[in-house]
C-alpha cells in the first residue's frame, strides 16, 4: 500500500460528526483532534441532518442508548446516505442485551453503512451468529473470525472491521489482517470507540477506497499504541492514555511505512 491516507487526513482536516456515548465523548474528540481531524459532537434531532450533510464522515455509537439518541442516529444516517457521506457504526454491546440487539437491527434496516467496527461478539451478533459478551466487552468464544467478518460484510454490503489482538478488515472479498497494537489498549475505556471515529476520519479522505483507507487506519492506530506503550514503559493505563493521544499526532507517514504490519490475505 503506497498511498498515505494519514497524510491526507492531516492535510484535509476532515469534519467528523459523532453521535456517541457519554463515556467516551471527550476522549473521542481529543483523539480526533490529535490525529488532525475536526470533531463535531452533535446529537440534537433538530440539527443532526445539517451536521451530517456538512461532514466528511458520520460515526454512530450505541454505547449509552436512549430513544432520543436512536432517532437522531437514524436522521443523521439518512442524511449521510443522501449526501454520500461515509457512515460508520460502532454497535457497542450488541448481543449483550436484547435492546442493543434490536436497536442495531433497526439502524441496519434503515441505513446503508460504509463500515461497521466492533469486537467479535458485537459483529457476530450483527451477522446472526452467537458469541459470548460481557457487557461492552467480547467474551471467550470459538470460531473462524475471518469467515465471520466476511459473512457480515457480504450481509451488510459494507466494510467490516473486527478488532482484538489482531484486527480483521474486509469487504467480503478482500481481507486485511492488521497486527500492530498493544494489549494495554484494553485497559483504557473508549479505545474501541475512538478507533471507530478514527476510521471515520480516514474514510472521509478515502476517495472511495474504503477497504484500503480502513486498513491503514487500523494499522496506524495499533502502531500509535505500540509507540505510546514503549514511552509509558512500566507506567499504567493513565499515563498510556495521554501518551497515546500524543502518538496519534506524532506518528509520521515514514514511521507508518516502516512499522506497519498489514497483511492482505490470499483469496
Ligand atoms: P472490547 O470492548 O471487547 O474491548 P472495543 O470496542 O474496546 O472492544 P477492541 O477490540 O478492544 O475494541 O479494539 C480497540 C483497539 O484495541 C484496537 O486497535 C485493537 O487492535 C486493540 N486491541 C484489543 N485487544 C488487543 C490485544 N489483546 N492486543 C493488542 N491490541 C488489542
Ligand atoms: N459503557 C457503555 S459505553 C462504554 C462503557 C464502558 C465505553 C466502551 O468503549 P470501548 O471503546 O468499547 O471500550
Ligand atoms: Mg477494548
Ligand atoms: Mg467497543
TrEMBL record:
Pathway involvement of the protein, from the record: Cofactor biosynthesis; thiamine diphosphate biosynthesis; 4-methyl-5-(2-phosphoethyl)-thiazole from 5-(2-hydroxyethyl)-4-methylthiazole: step 1/1
Organism per entry: Paenibacillus rhizoplanae
Listed PANTHER family: HYDROXYMETHYLPYRIMIDINE_PHOSPHOMETHYLPYRIMIDINE KINASE THI20-RELATED, PHOSPHOMETHYLPYRIMIDINE KINASE
Reaction equation(s) it catalyzes: 5-(2-hydroxyethyl)-4-methylthiazole + ATP = 4-methyl-5-(2-phosphooxyethyl)-thiazole + ADP + H(+)
Keyword set, alphabetical order: ATP-binding, Kinase, Magnesium, Metal-binding, Nucleotide-binding, Thiamine biosynthesis, Transferase
Group of enzyme by EC: transferase
Cofactor(s) the protein needs: Mg(2+)
Known function: Catalyzes the phosphorylation of the hydroxyl group of 4-methyl-5-beta-hydroxyethylthiazole (THZ).
Protein name as catalogued: Hydroxyethylthiazole kinase
NCBIfam families, per database record: PRK09355.1, thiM
List of residues binding ATP: 117, 163
GO molecular function, one term: hydroxyethylthiazole kinase activity
Signal peptide: none
Family: Belongs to the Thz kinase family.
Residues annotated for substrate binding in this entry: 41, 190
The protein's Enzyme Commission number: 2.7.1.50
